[in-house]
Write a structure and sequence with these properties.
about 375 residues; alpha+beta; 10-stranded mixed β-sheet; two-stranded antiparallel ribbon; 12 helices; acyltransferase
Length: about 375
């Protein structure tokens, strides 16, 4: 099997739902990222074997295979294909896995993997409409929404409202500090938008993090799914808009082109988990990927575990014995937002840049997914 490397990665800033990207089509946002990625990497668009994008709500402007339409908008030659996949919140992470598998097997040499989501223009669940779940599925499993799943996780792992709100407050603080220190500058492509007054603005900063987000402020928010529960809008991820992508290549091809990759993909995993509890999948996906890599959690220099809800990373910490100081040190989806299809490669780009900035060696990424699934990826920084 051939070694797969990540040559470069890029993302847009993440906009709040109905925020800075409200008037920006998601196919055009994805096209902007695709165009910028090949420019930064210094490769020709004609060299790309495939464009694989994750997108969850594949309806309206995000229907019709957005990977293909975005590539055409971005000026890729017509022989460059595209495919759109849905692994729920881990869609773009799965795009990376599929691309890496194609390269490792020798089927392809150069793949763009990424994702896009406009939760403003194509709201969550609009692709489902009034469709009801199969009665055969309901007979087999208790299917509840993620908010109620979160409430059950909190009880199972004996967490409190204060635990969740404290974690969420810290997510905002860490994200604001990361922005202040310029940690995201190198990974964000500017997006020019036209404001309501007709003036143009270049968007280069994530819109989600809020100053003054304290435990006291969060404790005043009402619960959303259970009036006697603990899950609020403040300790859950934000609905968001954004796009992201990475350029994958065989090590041999990168060497032929004289490119200097940023990281190599060490191991990948995907797993199913309890569809009722739903969001506990990253625990097993992490165990699985560490076993594949022949590494321990203590050998990881940093990790990104998607903050779908605050209890997800907190439970993951409990079960894996990981170091909380290494977890999401630049904030997570509670502060920075969660544009569903784009989140996997958004986190991967941030993880890769952090390893480069700090000189760390190994990074781990894990994401929980709807209906009980999870992906995990380990990367190694290349000197």
């Amino acid at each position: 099997m051939r070694e797969v490397v990540i040559v470069d990665g890029v993302r847009t800033a993440v906009g709040r739902r109905k925020g800075i990207f409200a008037s920006y089509r998601s196919d055009e946002l994805a096209a902007l990222v695709l165009d910028e990625l090949v420019k930064r990497a210094g490769v020709e668009k004609a060299e790309i074997d495939d464009v694989i994008l994750g997108c969850v709500t594949q309806t309206g402007e995000q229907a019709g295979n957005i990977a293909r339409t975005a590539a055409l908008i971005a000026g890729f030659p017509i022989h460059v294909p595209g495919v759109t996949i849905d692994r729920q919140c881990g869609s773009s992470q799965q795009a990376v896995h599929f691309g890496a598998q194609a390269i490792a097997s020798g089927d392809m040499d150069m793949v763009i993997a990424g994702g896009v989501e406009s939760m403003t223009r194509e709201p969550m669940f609009t692709n489902i409409g009034d469709t009801k779940l199969s009665s055969k599925l309901i007979e087999k499993y208790e299917i509840i929404n993620q908010g109620l799943s979160s409430e059950r996780m909190v009880k199972k792992w004996n967490l409190t409202r204060e635990d969740l709100d404290k974690y969420s407050s810290n997510s905002h603080s860490k994200a604001l500090e990361a922005i202040k220190k310029g940690h995201f500058v190198n990974e964000i492509v500017p997006v020019e938008i036209i404001q309501e007054d007709g003036t143009r603005k270049s968007v280069t900063v994530d819109e989600g993090p809020r100053l003054g987000t304290t435990v006291e402020v969060l404790s005043g928010l009402r619960t959303v799914f259970d009036e006697n529960g603990v899950i609020t809008a403040g300790n859950a991820s934000q609905m968001s808009d954004g796009a992201s992508a990475v350029l994958l290549m065989s090590k041999e091809r990168a060497k032929q082109l004289g490119l200097k990759p940023k990281a190599r993909i060490v191991a990948r995993s995907v797993t199913g988990s309890d569809p009722t509890l739903m969001l506990s999948g990253p625990i097993e996906a992490t165990r699985k990927v560490l076993l594949k890599a022949g590494l321990s959690i203590n050998e990881m220099d940093t990790y990104e575990v998607n903050e779908a809800f605050a209890q997800v990373p907190l439970v993951w910490l409990k079960e894996t014995g990981a170091d909380p100081e290494k977890l999401n040190p630049d904030g997570g989806a509670i502060a920075l937002g969660h544009p569903l299809g784009a989140t996997g490669t958004r986190l991967l780009v941030t993880l890769m840049n952090r390893l480069e900035r700090t000189g760390g060696r190994y990074g781990l990424l894990a994401i929980c997914e709807g209906m009980g699934m999870a992906n995990a990826t380990i990367i190694e920084r290349i000197e």
